[in-house]
Amino acid sequence: MPASLVEATHVFTHKTAFGWLAVASQNSESSKCDTLLAVTFAHANPQAALRALPKAAFEDRDISYNSGSVKESKPALAVTSKASPLVRRLGKFLDGNPDDLLDIEIDQSWCTPFQQAVINAVRQIPLGQTRTYGEIAKVAGSPRAARAVGTVMAQNRTPLVVPCHRVVASGGMGGFSARGGLRTKLRLLETEAAAQATKRPSRKTANSNGTRKRSPK
Fold first, then answer.
1. Which of 22, 95, 139, 163 fits a 20 to 30 Å CA distance from 2?
2. Which residues span the domain enclosing 36?
């Protein structure tokens, strides 16, 4: 059976609170879930988002043609008029809806064992929290490889799902390769922290009769 009938790679764009998001994903007849190939976000328009998708993510893949109102010069990269559930989910995340995104399958076929270990460690960082490059290196089994962790983060093809914005330097914020740099990194962390705060139940104290009441503000 031709590969194009077994697997199809789709490229979508979606507008979010952070600007335009572009997502490449692949589905197959053998899997019920899409595999995420690449993500880019915080762009001024859909064309810019499409251009920013990591080109290496499309090597040796059959990319489907999708109808839409905006198209790039390369016909394989075309914006769809209807976002997939995966794209809508990432859009909601950027709009401030808390989601650990841990169940999303990502393509790691390009990764070395060390890169896979780093990616898996980074995905376990809770929403709104941070870990240093050195801490991730230890979890990945290479405690002296903090700088190499930074390289893996700079090459991250699926930000948000692999939340490289939660990885910081021991003495500061470190770098961030997404559009907007550290400003975008800080905004993501602030958005996550605010979303987590709204989920926390209000503190309560006990009355003399044992019932609970809200603490005075």
1. 22
2. 3-94
